């Protein structure tokens, strides 16, 4: 009996009721009041700070539910609202959205959650409060469903949509951008290719290969310029196939070119038995005659 009365859990339980709240509520309140983040960089410092809250809140809410939210003091309302937004907890968002302002930080937190239902709830509650930077944030975190919801609500494309998708390797979102005619400007070509190259995201450029993108991949031991075949999506090293510059228009590999042009495959020389050759800059290039000497001129006697 002595060990029971002196157990830590029992003492905490008794002390928590001295404060007028159950022990689990006291623990949650203490964690919420201990939250610290940098307002100058809130979107980077707040999510890690909310992780301890997420270790406590789901079990607490399972016991206390929405009634427990009503009993929470207003002094921790902002912290709890931020938690609900970032983790897409619809009951928390619904409870606090009409009591606290919904502005830049709040929109970005709910976008980062990836919860389409929570995003649609805020769009219905604040139809004019969303802005185009939220789509950029959704692309960055790879939430295609959120991008669709924002576009359906009429939120315009951000100017950096293509660059963000390539920088973070969001191939599915790049396909969506291409299918739904996200604005594209020619001067973005180098920026998109460079952003994808830094992370080696070749698959991001597949949806936009018809735009003539060439990706430069940096590897530990070599540097290769890759070009994609417009028919089979095959990847070919430009130096390996003899291409010194980007060809204009569509480009097809040696295997696909006969199917597209209806021509016979070109014969290979002894020095050209690689995956492809470099005379594919244009489909109208002249064929080479391999293995036959040029005709000699007759000498007059």
From TrEMBL:
Cross-referenced Gene3D superfamilies: Ankyrin repeat-containing domain, Zinc/RING finger domain, C3HC4 (zinc finger)
InterPro entries: Ankyrin_rpt-contain_sf, Znf_FYVE_PHD, Znf_RING/FYVE/PHD
Region (Disordered): 263-301
Biased composition (Acidic residues): 268-279
Domain of life, per lineage: Eukaryota
Protein name, UniProt field: Zinc finger PHD-type domain-containing protein
Upper lineage: Eukaryota, Sar, Stramenopiles, Oomycota, Saprolegniomycetes
